[in-house]
TrEMBL record:
This is ABC transporter substrate-binding protein. One of its GO terms (molecular function) is peptide transmembrane transporter activity. GO terms for cellular component: ATP-binding cassette (ABC) transporter complex; cell envelope; periplasmic space. The lineage of its organism: Bacteria, Bacillati, Actinomycetota, Actinomycetes, Kitasatosporales. Keywords: Membrane, Signal, Transmembrane, Transmembrane helix, Transport. It comes from Streptomyces tabacisoli. SUPFAM superfamilies: Periplasmic binding protein-like II. The keyword Transmembrane helix applies. It is found in: Cell envelope. Belongs to the bacterial solute-binding protein 5 family. One of its GO terms (biological process) is peptide transport.
């Protein structure tokens, strides 16, 4: 999966991950709950609150309404986790914050052979691990080889190495990857590179969360120095990071877990935190309540996420063993399409997101214009309850006493997995219950704090889904291939919702092997068209990134894309790298710039993606939109 995805999920990436608790929006309601006044972190650690006092350091505090799923680069898929990993480790390449084009990372340049089956990367010579060891091409080779030979190590990013034949490091600065067939993602391998001398001693990659010994050895712009589950993640600036231009202005970053998003918004109002983002965005009520407030700026830009309904097409393992208890009615394409023709996406955008989103169409958000796809007029499954009823009739589910009844005499009753921490899920669930009820279909909205258990077990009919999409779409497409299915029932896997189809797999292989951007984009759009027609995924909306920060504490911070984009959950570390605190001379006050440092809080909540986060999909889905 692509990191991110975000992966991350994602991310979400992928991603998210999945997330933070959001305020429940009743249809059309805009009430802002001030229960947030109890803005206390979960299991607060008193000594942590004083961290900004130590030595007059400038401390950036990020307030989270989402927990870290893992600090292991091989397992993490929630957006918060992959965002932290981008600070801890260098990746082979990075994305320019201005327009997402690929720029050097751990690799300074790359060159394919004439047949494009061998790629040679020049690994920078000025990178070292935080314990003093030199970071080399051997570490990159170890990372990729471990993913190629250990299924657990391939949990988060295995799709990147599935086509690798051999990876070697002839020298400290040369990495050579031989492919089985051409692979278009070779300049966007969103994989954190780990130190071989540390990770070679790990016995079980499926259980090692990289959270036992601090500081954690890394080579990114920050070093993780401390972590307490559901309390905080603490990082300090890495003085030896190779990128020297405009070094980070903050000495430390603390990601602190809050009990919910309202609490963080209340803290922003009080000036206790400096930055708040939502899950994946502030709710319309929260954003509206903050606009016009003194010293608070609301940032809104096109999001990199989609918000969808995913169906259970029948959970199965790679060898074809079926498991779970998904409703067999959803194996019928007509039933799936009938349900989606009863979803009024305009109402969802207008009433639930209150205009802070774009109506859903294809799988890739419009922010990524090269891959964005829209159905033709004749193909579009537009809102039409009458047409939906006819499809159910054709599928054998006749209307009897107000209920759709199958040939077996059983009523068509469905369940949808809902993230208890996501107000959008709850609000949309109410609409679905009403719309599908009029169609004669029963619906139970099953809201859980952690949806990963039933999702992995295939014990659901439908689920609210979402991912943060990377500039390269390979990851979020790969989670729907047969290769992503679990090896064993009820175990985490790279799959999103157990889709496995030969035509989709063939198209996936073609886009992966196509180096011509225009031709590759066409294959990607064909995959989106297939997903749309199949009825397995119904993308209802593309939520905007809506976040807010205090201008009396943050002097400047970079969005991605620079012109109009998001601050939290970027495809890189640019926001935290660029964040500049307000000084005494800027603010004319010692309150926000004294030796206590600037406290920056950000609430993160991710949509679980899809389950999966792969915890989202892999480790998965404890909340929505978690993947990078």
């Amino acid at each position: 999966m692509a990191t991110k995805a975000q992966r991350d999920t994602h991310d979400q990436h992928h991603r998210t991950n999945r997330s933070g608790v959001r305020v429940l929006l009743a249809a059309g309601a805009a009430a802002f709950s001030l229960t947030a006044a109890l803005a206390t972190p979960l299991n607060p650690a008193p000594h942590e609150a004083k961290a900004a006092d130590d030595g007059g350091k400038k401390v950036l505090t990020v307030a989270l309404a989402q927990s870290v799923d893992s600090l292991s680069p091989f397992l993490a898929t929630r957006l918060v986790s992959t965002s932290i990993l981008r600070l801890m480790y260098d990746y082979p390449t990075n994305y320019d914050p201005k327009d997402n084009h690929v720029v050097p990372g751990f690799a300074t340049k790359w060159e394919p052979s004439s047949d494009k089956l061998t790629w040679t990367y020049t690994i920078r010579s000025d990178s070292k691990w935080s314990d003093g060891e030199k970071a080399t091409a051997h570490d990159a080779a170890f990372t990729f080889n471990k993913m190629m030979t250990d299924d657990a190590a391939a949990t988060a990013n295995g799709s990147f190495v599935g086509n690798f034949e051999k990876v070697t490091a002839p020298s400290d600065t040369q990495l050579v990857i031989k492919l089985k067939k051409p692979q278009a993602t070779m300049t966007s391998l969103d994989v954190p590179i780990v130190p071989e001398h540390v990770w070679k001693d790990v016995k079980d990659y499926s259980k090692f969360n990289n959270d036992q010994k601090f500081p954690i050895v890394g080579n990114g712009p920050f070093i993780l120095t401390d972590y307490k589950t559901d309390q905080y993640v603490k990082l300090k600036r890495n003085p030896d990071f190779w990128r020297k231009s405009k070094n980070p202005q903050f000495d430390e970053i603390v990601f602190k877990t809050y009990k919910d998003q309202d609490a963080a918004v209340a803290a922003l109002r009080k000036g206790e935190v400096s930055f708040v983002a939502g899950s994946p965005a502030l709710t319309p009520a929260q954003a509206a309540s903050l606009k016009g407030e003194k010293n608070i700026k609301v940032n809104e830009g096109p999001g990199r996420r989609f918000y969808a309904i995913a169906t259970n097409p029948g959970a199965r393992t790679k060898d074809g063993k079926k498991f779970g208890d998904g409703n067999k009615a959803l194996l019928d394409q007509k039933v799936r399409q009938a349900l989606f023709r009863s979803v009024d996406t305009k109402t969802i955008v207008d009433k639930v997101f209150q205009g802070h989103a774009v109506q859903g169409e294809g799988y890739i958000p419009p922010r990524f214009k090269d891959y964005f796809w829209s159905p033709s007029d004749s193909q579009k499954l537009s809102y039409d309850p009458g047409a939906a009823g006819k499809l159910l009739d054709e599928a054998g589910y006749k209307l009897k006493d107000g209920k759709r009844v199958g040939k077996d005499g059983k009523a068509l009753d469905l369940r949808i997995l809902c993230h208890a921490t996501d107000p959008n899920d709850k609000a949309v669930g109410k609409y679905l219950k009403e719309w599908w009820g009029k169609l004669g279909v029963g619906l139970k909205v099953d809201c859980l704090d952690d949806v990963s258990v039933p999702w992995y077990a295939g014990e659901y009919d439908l689920a609210f889904d979402g991912w943060s999409v990377n500039p390269d779409p390979d990851f979020v497409l790969g989670i729907h291939t047969c290769a992503a299915l679990p090896a064993k029932a009820k175990e985490s896997a790279a799959t999103d919702n157990f889709i496995c189809d030969k035509k989709f797999d063939d198209l996936y292989g073609k886009q992966l092997a196509e180096y011509d951007p225009a031709k590759r984009a066409e294959y990607v759009k064909q995959m989106e068209s297939w997903l749309y027609d199949s009825g397995y995924m119904n993308v209802m909306a593309y939520p905007n990134a809506v976040e807010a920060y205090r201008t009396d504490q943050i002097k400047s911070i970079e969005t991605m894309p620079t012109a109009a984009g998001n601050i939290y959950g970027q495809d890189g570390y640019w926001s935290w790298w660029s964040a500049e605190p307000v000084s005494s001379s800027d603010s004319g006050s010692s309150d926000s710039s004294s030796t206590t440092g600037v406290v920056i809080g950000i609430v993160v909540a991710a949509l679980v993606v899809i389950g999966g986060g792969l915890l989202f999909t892999r480790r998965r889905r404890s909340t929505a939109d978690e993947r990078e």
